[in-house]
Specification:
By secondary structure, the chain is an alpha/beta fold. The chain is 42% helix and 15% strand. It has an eight-stranded parallel beta barrel, surrounded by five helices. It binds 1,3-dihydroxyacetonephosphate (13P).
Length: 251
Amino acid sequence: MSICTIVGNWKMNTTVTEAVELVSAVASGLSSEISAEVVVCPPFISLVSVQLALHSSTISIGAQNLYHEMNGAYTGEISGGMLKNICQYVIVGHSERRSIFGETDVDVNLKVKAALGTGIAPIMCVGESLEERERGSANSVVESQVRGGLEGVDIGADVVVAYEPVWAVGTGQSASPEIAQAMMAHIRGTLEKIGGKDAASRVPLLYGGSVNAGNVGEYISQPDINGALVGGASLDAESFVEIVKVAASKS
Ligand code: 13P
């Protein structure tokens, strides 16, 4: 794997107008050849406007969630079939969805399968809480999230895994590159047990949690880190462009 993947998760931020302004600024900041896969994940209501604004760009689009059924009486939900002509990626199992909306590994697994079934690459998020890390169970928690979310899934398909320790998300307390790498090696090892060494080596592993232009280079330099999932800093075009440039120069 040579090129890195940098994903901006805008979460519940930006109006449609703001989303178009933000993505246009990112696209013009990255107009020269950049050797990175860049993905922006705006809110659902801005996906189409962002797609139109990106018409001649190589930037990819991701959704922040999906429901596993294809259609029907599921008020308020969005399916993979609705996203497939717009998005190349979809975030599933973000820690905010797990903790605020009660998503379980079973839900995450259904979503991963639904995404792959419609030709969208799932970015499956895993990560331990501070309490779980302090009690020494970070590895087992993350391993069971990886195994549960990927139950019955061919990891040779387009699966991306993002490790986002909950204590590092939105806190400014990023994990040290050593902690991040140690967990990534554990995730890679778990993927090897699930789908073999070859398939596991091709799964992009992203670090997320207070990533900025100042620390992204250290993450990308780690052997098992292939990119970053960026929250807050992806809402500022200049910061996000800088993150992509630094990451591309280190990968
Ligand atoms: P921050 O970069 O704001 O910590 O958010 C990380 C995140 O949750 C990305 O999905």
